[in-house]
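Case study B.
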Amino acid sequence: MFADYSMSELGAIFAMQGFAGLILFSVFVLMALGLAIIFGQMGVINMAHGEFMILGAYVTYLVSNFFAAFLPGIFGIYFFIAMGLAFVVSGGLGLFIEWAMIRHLYKRPLDTLLATWGLSLILQQLYRSIFGAREVGVTIPDWMMGSLPLTDLIEVPINGIFVMVLAVGISVAVYVMMFRSGWGKQVRAINQNRVMAGAVGINTEWTDRLTFGIGCGVAGVAGSAFTMIGSTGPTAGQLYIVDTFLVVVFGGAASLLGTIASAFSISQAQSIMEFFLSGSMAKVLTLLTVVGILMLRPQGLFALKLRK
Amino acid sequence: MKTNTLFPRADIIGFAVLAVVIFLLLPAVLDSFRLNLFGKYLTYAFVAVGLALCWGAGGILSLGQGVFFGLGGYCMAMFLKLEASTPENTAIQSTPGIPDFMDWNQLTALPWWWEPFYSLPFTILAVVMVPVVFAFVIGVAMFKRRVGGVYFAIITQAFAAILTILIIGQQGFTGGVNGITDLRTLWGWDIRTDEAKEILYYVNGVLLFAVLFAAQFVRKSKLGRLLIAMRDQEDRVRFSGYDVASFKIFIFCLGAAFAGIGGAMFTLQVGFMSPTLVGIVPSIEMVIFCAVGGRLSILGAVYGALVVNWAKTTFSESFPELWLLGLGGLFIAVVMLFPNGLAGIWSEQIAPRLTKLISKNTNPATGQGAPAE
Amino acid sequence: MTDESSKKPNQSQSTGMNRRAVLAGGTALTASLFMPKNLMAADYPTAEVNTTGLAVTDDTVTIGILHSITGTMAISETGSVQAEKLAIDQINAQGGILGRKIEYIQEDGASDWPTFAEKAKKLLVNDKVASVMGCWTSASRKAVLPVFEQYNGFLYYPTFYEGLEQSPNVIYTGQEATQQIIAGLDWVSETKGAKTFYLLGSDYIWPRTSNKIARKHIENFLGAKVVGEEYYPLGHTQFNSVINKIRLKKPDVIYAIVVGGSNVAFYKQLKAAGIDMTKEDPIVLTISVTEDEIRGIGGENIEGAYACMKYFQSLTNENNMEFVKSFKEMWGDDMVIGDVTQAAYLGPWLWKAAVEKAGSFDVDKVRAATPGIELGTAPEGYVKVHDNHHLWSKTRVGLAKADGQYDVVYETAELVEPDPFPEGYQ
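Model:
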């Protein structure tokens, strides 16, 4: 297996594959974080998660067109503005959806699943009516599409670094919000006992709405970042949804740390196997491993010690 | 009197009405094309009835019923494909006598696990048992560890996704994304003709009623009452000394068996099986059939499957560009406004008024209406 | 429709009134020989041209359009629907077929194969359409094929595909695999001196079969070497690992048959990984990226790659100029036209030619009349229907530019014979 390569090449293989694995890890974290926040803290499964991501991607598309048309001079930095807007727009839609739909269904968590599935169908069709059935091409600033040559063999894609930095940044931000802020305390209090939290004066309604909004906003940012590496079309959200759910389930759905750990293990396993096997087989083997572990440990890697 | 407890009067009426609809009304008013379509919808009703038991009675929401539907369907499709792949029919292949998609994928011999599907009795057994075994494994892993609720729902969904990817990835053995197509005969009987489709429709109807009777029996038995008790207060049932997990596993396997039969009937009536029926999307749609019909009612589930599919077909024929909006809206409306679905509307709105109307004219009648039980 | 388009394509094919032997290879002549006779419906009594109960009246004939306009395949199939509607409008503006206007019933396959089968049956059994323009993926075609054979329908299928099929009820207006692959490989081997190839594809039947043919050709006919062959699941969006492998193997050519959303991811990541396609080291040669896909990928991300197709929007022949103009008039200036869109556009025209040659809408007669039908007005140039229901057509190689169009850098001198069951490539 290694015989064909020289030592320096082998070193390069491991360096580059390690890096590819880290990029995949970051992508998984970005995908799953929004879903994990909403599920972990509210017990709501947002089946329209992929569509919220694509909303962020479409926002990026619109912003890039706007900059290309009116502000070509500073096109190079539009992406940051686009990500901010993606957060605001997806988050805003999230707030609205929470108000219109989700809050009526807190006592029926299984039903939120169905309602948000309906929402995802509606959003897909809206995207199709507004932006057309075809994929749209998002122009990425040139500086983000290049790569940094480290050695002859090793080149590091800049968008990969960008995704990694973003994933780390958002994870830290979420961690701070959840575990170091008063608001996070409120969210966790509600998660543990809604009635009591209300009784001690926490505005449960508003906290829920904000949690849902933030989860959707993070999805929007992820979608915005993914315009660098993937496609933007009405149904592109479906490309990510399977991996997203697997990461969240495998991690033990109620734990943010679990989500990150599971994203790490799945991405590393997949990228190592992808290198030594063919792509399709790697995917199948990864999935089978995940299933196998889920069979032995259905509550996921990191389960809350709650017995229901 | 056992029959009375198994079939209260309202249920008898409900079953009778459904029998009239399926065996008399639909065949009378529909041409053979539309009847075949309704035959296809009825195959989904098998899944919906199973879901009404698991979800409505047992509180177990599976978003992976497509897996069982697909497994049943694939078992049947394998048998039919082998029958269609005679050496004469496949003479142009490099290896005649094996299914065409295997030949395209450079397989030169039939995989060993295809061999048993030359036998129809084995296939019929497999249609039921493969989904059941699969459900049993999942059920033991999950319920013994007390995994339930939303978490169970998304794990089953993950299974649906994984099985789809496996089927598509292993195309040499499974036909891949194309599925297993071009099925022709069942023991020499051409299943593609209009007469055959009509016969299959009735076979389908009879099987559906068998499944409905089984479901009714389960609901009216002690098991059914325990299930409802578990749904509402699982811990109390556990403290009363019942093994909650075993009951859940049983009902989950039963739902899987129903779905498997539905899948096999689907293959027979539509003439092929493909991974698009296994994945997340069809699995959730099947839940919607059940939700629209009324998750508490097994008869409602049948009506739900018929109504939603009929609406989907009609809607996509008249407004193809907008049907997703309608379908999405229907999901939301049912969940938000009519959580008990058609059966709920019937038992809460229509039946009481009907009863009033009837009781004005005749003797006081029983309170409950037909589909609702 | 506008006036320009109503003047547009004329069938070179002689009509039922005036039946001739098919011009054997007389390519240049056919385009302008016959002005369209204004065929009057009265000359063709309905009872005579429609003996099998199809949806034909004294002044209309109904056909079906069956594509996905929802679901994941809507991205690809939209262009085909647009082209078919354009062709129908143009035919109607010329007076229709046998004096009858074409009406169409459009059904949505919803990217779901059972739905395709259901809708196909509805079109044939319920609506009694005279022919169907439709399907895109192989899976959808496989799903409807038994329906078309059972009810004797007639399908015009526009997509380039893997071959290994030849149904009496389907006309394949796209290329089968050898037509698309072999000439392109010859070209890259001869002009670029390519010696090593890395084959890559999405994991389903078309890329696998195409790569099988490519491998046989590379190894047995070109004497070159395949250094890697890989498949990724449909919808896969992470290609960094395979890009690393490619970098290590240093092939002369990356032969890519990646489709759908994966396509976009692959090219974006290829570029981001520092593989500059304009430097041609390695050369990227694809058979799955048309102008349609480039819109999603972004021209700047695929600039410098080569695609092997039979049609590019940038073809400069007169037919194509007219076609592109009317397409944009009908569907908007920002539209692009890819290989499959053009092939879909041929469907209604080929059917018209066949019906007029047969002097009947009956499927059996149309089928009998179809082999040998020529179209001098096709945007891709002259095409002809082979006995095996595929089209003779040229293979072209295009170089992708940053504006999302291709420069045609090579085309075969002669039409390439379709060969759905190629000897020596199985």
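Residues 1-36 of chain C have pLDDT under 50 and may be disordered. The remaining cases will be described in the next quarterly update.
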